[in-house]
Amino acid sequence: MRGSNEREQDGGGLAVRVLTDIAGMEAIADEWRALERRCDGGLSFFQSYLWCRAWAECFAGGSGTPRPFVATVRAGDRLVAVWPLMVGGLRGALRRIETLGGTHSQYSTLILDPEFAGRTAAIADGLLSSLTASGGFDVALFEAVPDGSALAAMLSRAAPAATVRNAASLLDLTGFSSSDAYLAGLGKLQRRNRNRRRNHLARHGDLRFSVLWPDEPAFAPTVRQALTMKRRWLAETGRLGIGLSQPGFAGFLAGLQGDRGRREGACLFVLETGERIAAIELGFLHAGHYYCYLGAFDWDLRDASPGKVQMEMTVCWLIDNGVSTYDLLANPTAYKDSWSNRIVGLGTYTIAHTWRGRLYARGWLPTLRPALKRAAEAVSYRLRRLAAFGQGLGCLMLVA
């Protein structure tokens, strides 16, 4: 990789160019944003310039770190597609091309000008050829590709879906004229449970709900507090959080941009009870779609379900501010099911170029990685339970 804009090829009037550094991304910033505005969103926040530029600045380009590989398509002078990828892996190890942002990016899509949807095949051929021409990698990995998306259609031409499947849980808000209408539409048991939670939490102090934007002094420290809360929850419940533990992640999130006036970008929903923060939710607004990226709560208040109280208030705010979707992202759970009314299937696609790439795509990815993750979580849970038992035994011995 020698720098930006190093490869071009023509495909029926479409020019494909790959940007391999931050300077190249910055050079097309205005066009990239304009292309986003011409599109309808399409679960593409994690391919937006806001996200990709910030992530690359924080995590990419240094020695031993991933390098940007942003494939672009032009029709004449017009930018019509952006596919943000990156190249990772050390020399002698497995080399991967994957979605820019890796585990931090929750969807893998491409941004495609709707006026060029009829030329998807030609665009796909050009973009896929840019991967082949790049060489120097073992496997191209595309996780969390939404079913029915332009990228899913493109990848299905060259890469059969792996056995890995997932789904995202979403709450469609367009059917509610107001937050009052949303609350009135809940079932009797739901209303009773939610009122009970609010009343229980209010025993610790008056409830206050607010929205913080990146231009406010409290935004950055509150993001860091949310991560501290989330990491405690991971430890207490014996779960893994590899992306959350990456050095620099707190600073990256705290530095993301958001626009209060346009209702775009990063924002924080904060629920306080008395003088303490009970729950925090970091999310992203993009093209009328809200991505619930990180939810956290005060573990000591867990019996009062502060996270669920905050979620209800957040949904009400989104409805009253004209947002169309509350997106709980991938990995369905029972609690996500209780908050959503729509599911989007997600697929994993791989293109293997070497024997190591094929071993990764056919063995590690669909079989070994999930098995090891389950085993690690089980061990973590047992160790946590053992530690709790040890603490309880120690207390009994002190009492005796």
Q: Please give the domain count.
A: 2
Our estimate of the beta-strand percent is 25-35%
Give me the Rg, rounded. Answer: 23 Å
State the name of the first-level CATH class of the largest domain: Alpha Beta
Instruction: Give a short account of the largest sheet.
Output: 15 strands, mixed
Structural class: alpha+beta
Q: List segments where confidence is low: pLDDT < 50 over at least 5 consecutive residues.
A: 1-11, 387-400
Shape assignment = globular
The DSSP helix count reads 12
Could you spell the SSE succession in H and E letters?
EEHHHEEEEHEHEHHEHHEEEEHEHEH
CATH topology name of the largest domain, in short, is Aminopeptidase
| Assigned CATH superfamily of the largest domain | Gcn5-related N-acetyltransferase (GNAT)
Average of pLDDT:
87
Q: How many strand elements? A: 15
The helix fraction, in percent, is 40-55%
CATH-level-2 architecture of the largest domain: 3-Layer(aba) Sandwich
The span between the termini is 68 Å
Keyphrases for this structure?
400 residues, alpha+beta, Aminopeptidase, globular, disordered N terminus
3D structure, described in words:
The structure is a single chain. The protein has helices at 22-27, 29-38, 49-59, 120-134, 150-155, 179-184, 188-202, 219-237, 249-254, 306-320, 334-339, 355-399; strands at 8-10, 14-19, 67-75, 78-88, 96-99, 111-112, 139-146, 161-172, 207-212, 258-259, 264-273, 276-286, 289-297, 325-330, 342-352. The protein folds into two domains: 8-167 and 346-379, 3-Layer(aba) Sandwich (Aminopeptidase), CATH 3.40.630; 175-323, Aminopeptidase (3-Layer(aba) Sandwich). The protein has 400 residues and is an alpha+beta fold. 40% of the residues lie in helices and 28% in strands. It has a 15-stranded mixed β-sheet that branches. Helix 7 (188-202) packs across helix 10 (306-320).
